[in-house]
């Protein structure tokens, strides 16, 4: 797993998913509003499309492994990423994202200052955050042998509490 820290935004998966959010949702609204339900739907549809593309390939152990162990995990990665974005917004009043533009993919900072989120959105994200805290969950297991496991768990618990406080 490529990662530079404990946040989903600091992982390869998280950065890829955030890139989709920027390109497919935030650019369209000039970075004015992060619509949680729309973003979750977008990320889930993107993952589902990729799964379908892999299912079109000849069956193999590698293809099945990639679908089951990588792509199916993207649903959880997406929910944790969205929860972290919402947590940042609740903590600071804005979400800072970068759009990489031009030939050199220069980063342009954007501050999203409005979120559309419902109690149902929060409940769904809380369920995922609750589930990843289970020591048997694959996401927890990613950290179980790592010295940063406690930092990750503390982070997830903090995000969970922040979202729970806003129901």
Break the fold down into its secondary structure elements and pairings.
Blueprint: H1 12-26, E1 33-35, H2 36-55, H3 61-71, H4 74-92, E2 95-101, E3 106-112, E4 114-116, H5 119-132, H6 138-141, H7 149-165
Parallel strand pairs: 1-4
Antiparallel strand pairs: 2-3
Describe this structure in words.
The protein is mostly helical. It is 60% helix and 12% strand. The protein is built from 7 helices and 4 strands, in the order αβαααβββααα. The chain has helices spanning 12-26, 36-55, 61-71, 74-92, 119-132, 138-141, 149-165; strands at 33-35, 95-101, 106-112, 114-116. The protein has a two-stranded parallel sheet. Strands 2-3 form a two-stranded antiparallel sheet. It is globular, with a radius of gyration of 16 Å. The relative contact order is 0.14. The model has no long low-confidence stretch (mean pLDDT 88).
Short summary of the structure?
With 167 residues, this protein is mainly α. The protein has helices at 12-26, 36-55, 61-71, 74-92, 119-132, 138-141, 149-165; strands spanning 33-35, 95-101, 106-112, 114-116. The protein has seven helices and four strands; from the N terminus they run H-E-H-H-H-E-E-E-H-H-H.
- Largest sheet descriptor: 2 strands, parallel
The secondary structure category is mainly alpha
How many runs of DSSP E, i.e. beta strands? Answer: 4
Taking Cα atoms only, what radius of gyration do you get, to the nearest Å? 16 Å
Shape: globular
Fraction in helix:
55-70%
- Separation, N- and C-terminal Cα atoms: 33 Å
H-E order:
HEHHHEEEHHH
């Amino acid at each position: 797993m490529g990662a530079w820290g404990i946040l989903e935004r600091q992982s390869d998966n998280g950065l890829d998913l955030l890139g989709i959010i920027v390109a497919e949702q935030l650019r369209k609204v000039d970075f004015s509003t992060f619509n949680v339900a729309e973003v979750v739907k977008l990320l889930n549809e993107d993952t589902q499309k990729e799964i379908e593309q892999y299912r079109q390939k000849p069956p193999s152990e590698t293809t099945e492994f990639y679908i089951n162990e990588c792509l199916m995990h993207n649903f959880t990665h997406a929910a944790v990423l969205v929860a972290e974005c919402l947590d940042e917004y609740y903590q600071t009043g804005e979400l800072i994202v970068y759009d990489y533009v031009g030939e050199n993919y220069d980063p342009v900072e954007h501050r999203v200052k409005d979120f559309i989120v419902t109690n149902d959105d929060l409940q769904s994200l809380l369920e995922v955050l609750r589930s990843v805290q289970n020591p048997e969950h694959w996401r927890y297991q990613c950290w179980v042998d790592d010295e940063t496991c406690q930092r990750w768990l503390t982070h997830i618990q903090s995000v969970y509490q922040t979202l729970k406080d806003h129901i």
